[in-house]
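Appendix B. Worked example

We walk through a single record from start to finish. Start with the input: the chain for DUF6036 domain-containing protein, Duganella radicis, length 202.
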Amino acid sequence: MQSFTEAILRLFDDLGDRLAAAGLPSGAVRAYLFGGCAVHMYERNRVSEDLDAEFDYNLIHRDDVLLVLSELPAVAYRSVAGREVGLNIDRRFNTTLCPLHMDYQDRATQLERGQSDASPLTVWLPNPMDVAISKLGRLSVVDVEDILVLLQEPSASWDEFERLATEASQYYVGRNLAGTIAYVKLQWQRRKDNDASSEDVK
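Next comes the structure step. The output line below is what the pipeline stores for this chain.
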């Protein structure tokens, strides 16, 4: 049974194959990975039964893409507990419902899947700070932990995250994020203080 990482890539491979079979041209669809699957690609510490992705494509391909997504079967992987779990693309996911910086695509990195250059699908992993910003809207206990983990990535920094999050909040349709950002900052400072204390003990 394949790992969770392999299941994520396999699901995108299956999607690319089906888009090709539907006659879509090379590079017609871009998928941007979010949610727990995106966190997993950075830290390998998260699993999920849903794959959140934002799809970018020309509207002339809309019906083909939606049809393929509706018929795409789940991919099985083995959970940490040893049971078989199915991974599905969540077709309800929509980045308009979560805070997101308008330039997130410019900072995304393409995932190499070994696909042919003729594949209609390319898959992109947003910068860890952009994934973290997308989690500010709901901000569950798990979301807070994900944000703190993502901000430990070498390409992330608190100052840049705060700047991008503040800019994203200006056009977010949900609640004002100033208090949320301040709360996350407090948790970030506490995490850093705890890490520093642990180093002192060593």
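Two observations about the output. The beta strands are 29-34, 50-57, 75-78, 84-89, 109-110, 121-125. The first helix runs from residue 4 to 21.
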